[in-house]
Amino acid sequence: MAEIITMPRLSDTMEEGTVATWLKQVGDAVTEGDILAEIETDKATMEFESFHEGTLLHIGVPEGETTKVDELLAIIGEKGEDISELLKADTVASNAVEESQTDDKIVTEEKTNNDLQIPDGVNVVTMPRLSDTMEEGTVATWLKQVGDAVEEGDILAEIETDKATMEFESFQAGTLLYVGLKEGESAKVDSLLAIIGPAGTDVSALASNFVAGGTNNSEAPAKPVETKKAEEKEVVSTPAVVTNTVDTSSNGRVFISPLAKKLAEEKGIALSQVKGTGENGRIIKRDIENYTPVASTATVGKFVPTGQEDFDEKSNSQMRKVIAKRLAESKFTAPHYYLNVEFDMENAMAFRAQFNSIPDTKISYNDMIVKACALALKQHPQVNSQWFADKMRLNNHVHIGVAVAVEDGLVVPVVRFANEQKLDQIGAAVKDYAGRARKKKLTPQEMEGSTFTISNLGMFGIESFTSIINQPNSAILSVGNIVEKPVVKNGQIVVGNTMKLSMACDHRTVDGATGAMFLQTLKGYIENPVTMLI
Predict the structure, then answer these.
(1) Contact criterion met (CB below 8 Å) for 387 and 506
(2) Rounded to an integer, what distance in angstroms lies between the CA atom of residue 335 and that of residue 356?
(3) Cβ count within 10 A of residue 420
């Protein structure tokens, strides 16, 4: 069945978009994840990928033309499918919208005044879409607090997306009157983030109406904040065994505060063993925190373990969620196989030492591997490829993704045109990317477009390992540490230094022999690094 594709909202302030380039034409096959077009927003030109599969049946906005967000962009369906009714319905809907603009404006104003009651000069700030794949965001840090003055262009907060932590600036001036999310809390795109307006304005009703009206994208309306302390509320719980340790009502129910009940469940403490010290014998938080198991008469004089099962829970970050999703998709869609090699590193070690003797110059073994891979990929474009349902793309450019471990997982900044860069240029770029990656300051553009990926765990003492392909790449190289060990040279056992590498390949694009020939070429560069300078 045909699907209507509308103009996406690719930035937090985007109201309309311009089609810079169509990468698919009418009649072309489209698979999920294919880039349909490059869309120019109010901030940047971004790639727009398809979330549907089929044939591109209709293009609603020619290159260079502009349309509003949510307007018809394209139609994807089965080849030869009749879409005349969809086009007719879209035309009728567009005309109806134009004819009712005045009425819509009146209705909108009435809703604004009556339902949301937005005072003059007050602006509602919603969770922005800071990347093309972002569905929800987490407030990492508030840089403004309620009551602070805000100027247009001031940084309100740092928002953690699925790709990076990015600064979010204000497009309004005034006073920060309300904060809808605490630091560490998450919400979907377009949810209430903050309210800005004249100092002293009461926006409590506006905030309540905004959330209760469903604009926060939650499954249920938000409830008013309870002002009583948790320990002042009574919740009735029925324990498995009721003893004289707990004061109960006449029907055998025990009184406990909600917080204490939650702590008891987390710690696995039977309420029947806890004596309440709150009002009327109610169990409260401190009773659970101070609880010590008492040995039964059957175990007196024997050793009784007093340990208890315990664990900590940590909410998955946006980055961790996306990593899990992408790696699972790669592992279960791309048929992986692995090629393992071991390189002699004697010449590489001598080369690096000599290269780093140049003043103000320092390169790592990883920089050398990036350069060597880039040169080898130019000779083996099949390894520098991407798989599509109806074709294979052999990339003539070489963009090397370098995996960098960060607190929440893994990011892959991209060294572009790595084959054209000098070793010290690669070293400076990788060092800069790694530093900013650990501070979550990389932009989405700096982590897109790789054609091959390198993951190096040698600095952690890992001798060998395998990696999951970073799609849409066709291969990823896993690099271990350099190991000093006995090796055979010219029939003699001598002390040598070797390094193990493993390459995971997508069998749809890279055959075993193709991968092996690439590694042979790579071996030549690594074991004779001076050839990288020729």
Answers:
(1) yes
(2) 41
(3) 11
Catalytic entry in 104, 115, 202, 511: 511
Domain architecture of the chain: domains with CATH: 3-99 (2.40.50.100), 118-215 (2.40.50.100), 230-299 (4.10.320.10), 318-533 (3.30.559.10)
Residue 25, amino acid: Q
Tell the residue number behind the tokens 């291969």, with chain if given. Answer: 475
C-alpha–C-alpha distance, residues 441 and 434, integer Å: 10
Please tell me what DSSP assigns to residue 358: S
Q: Which one from 52, 336, 397, 507 is the annotated catalytic residue?
A: 507
Q: How far apart are CA 198 and CA 213, in angstroms?
A: 24
Q: Which amino acid is at 246?
A: V
- DSSP bridge pairs for 502: 340, 478
Considering only the C-alpha atoms of the chain, give the largest distance between any 2 of them, rounded to a whole number of Å. Answer: 92
Render each residue's pLDDT in the chain as its tens digit; 534 residues. 788 898 887 665 678 889 989 999 999 999 877 888 988 876 567 788 887 889 999 999 999 899 988 889 999 999 988 888 888 877 666 655 555 554 544 444 444 444 556 788 888 899 888 765 678 889 988 999 999 999 887 889 988 887 677 888 888 889 999 999 999 899 888 889 999 999 988 888 888 877 655 555 433 333 333 333 333 333 443 333 333 344 444 445 567 776 778 788 888 888 888 888 876 677 887 888 888 876 555 545 556 666 778 888 888 877 788 888 889 999 999 999 999 999 999 999 999 999 999 998 899 999 999 999 999 999 999 999 999 888 999 999 999 999 999 887 889 999 999 999 999 999 999 999 999 988 888 888 899 999 999 999 999 999 999 999 999 999 999 999 999 999 999 999 999 999 999 999 999 999 999 999 999 999 999 999 999 998
What Rg, from alpha-carbon coordinates, does the chain have?
A: 31
Establish whether 511 is a catalytic residue.
Answer: yes
Tell me, yes or no, if 507 is annotated catalytic.
Answer: yes
Q: Is the whole-model pTM more than 0.90? A: no
Q: Which residues of 29-54 are buried (b: 16+ CB within 10 A; e: fewer)?
A: bbeeebebbbbbbeeeebbbbbebbb
Under a CB-based contact definition with an 8 Å cutoff, are residues 210 and 243 in contact?
no
Cα separation values, 357 from 350, 363, 424, 533, Å? 11, 10, 13, 16
